[in-house]
Amino acid sequence: MPAPPFRDQHGTILPHDHPEILDADYVLRHIVPPHDLHPDPAKGTVRVSSGAYSESSDGGMSVDIIRWMAADGLDACDYLAEDGMGATKIRVGDLRALGLMVGWDPDTGHEHHGAVWGIKDQKQRRRISKLAITVRKAAGET
Hints:
By secondary structure, the chain is α+β, with helices and mostly antiparallel strands.
């Protein structure tokens, strides 16, 4: 198991860069239709919106740590809850180059769960969107 995540005095996981999540690693972001999709009428397409790369209200953008999943024999998409959900992967070093922190956050459901902290505005979400690589298209995505 990796070193425990950083916590405050109440046991809450703090935003942090986890030393065992490497810059060369990829994290997986779940794409939930239709919420995370944006129609582009001019192009006649439906794409993942930059808003899909937002932090949740309880802090951090939820991701899965792909290398840790593979080490345990899991496919990158094993945690996708529904068949219609999509997924993108983002290189950790690219996220850190944007000034973001990538850490381990196992309290939210599974031991391969991580979070990306420090996403403050639309500009950063657009940058993340451009870095994201489609692993599986969401239902309705073209």
